[in-house]
Amino acid sequence: MSSSKEDLTEMQKYVIYHNGTEEPFNNEYWDHKEPGIYVDAVSGEALFSSTDKFDSGTGWPSFTKPLKEENVTEKADYKLFMPRTEVRSSNADSHLGHVFADGPKDKGGMRYCINSAALKFIHKDDLEKQGYGEYLYLFAE
């Protein structure tokens, strides 16, 4: 599963290719609660799971950890007044958002604050047919 640049919306292009940020509380997945995984909108690489998603109160989807550490990279970001840590997808190099050390302490303390525009959601019922069957274990009853 991968998308060409032409398949992306203007907001997706802004976020992914220009390190943009979408509006809080006005994006596709900030309050999304269905079971499944979130993949890179460009490359389809698996990034986050609904099992690690939590309501951070920020208006963006927030996760305690990546699904696979090797699918995300972190780099220093000095664009604002304080240093932050940017999160990008490893293969497509899509800008995803930022990671902060103010997440749930009982889950490691990290908050991956991610733009919905950089993601595509794959429902647990569609994992196998869309090539993500290896993640079904996350939703075993």
Summarize the structure.
Helix content is 6%, strand content 28%. By secondary structure, it is mostly beta strands.
Helix proportion range = under 10%
**How many separate domains make up the residues?**
1
CATH homologous group name = Peptide methionine sulfoxide reductase
Decide which structural class fits the backbone: mainly beta
> Which CATH architecture?
Beta Complex
What is the 3D form?
A: globular
Low-confidence stretches: none
Q: Would you tell me which CATH topology applies? A: Metal Binding Protein, Guanine Nucleotide Exchange Factor, Chain A
Structural summary, described in words:
This protein has a single domain, classed as Metal Binding Protein, Guanine Nucleotide Exchange Factor, Chain A (Beta Complex), CATH 2.170.150. The longest helix is centred in the first third of the chain and has 9 residues, at 10-18. The model has no long low-confidence stretch (mean pLDDT 93). It contains one helix and nine strands; from the N terminus they run αβββββββββ. The strands form two sheets. A six-stranded antiparallel beta sheet has the order 3-4-8-7-6-5. The chain is mostly beta strands and 141 residues long. It starts with 9 loop residues before the first helix and ends in an 18-residue tail after the last strand. It has one helix spanning 10-18; strands spanning 36-40, 46-49, 53-54, 62-63, 72-77, 84-89, 95-100, 111-114, 119-123.
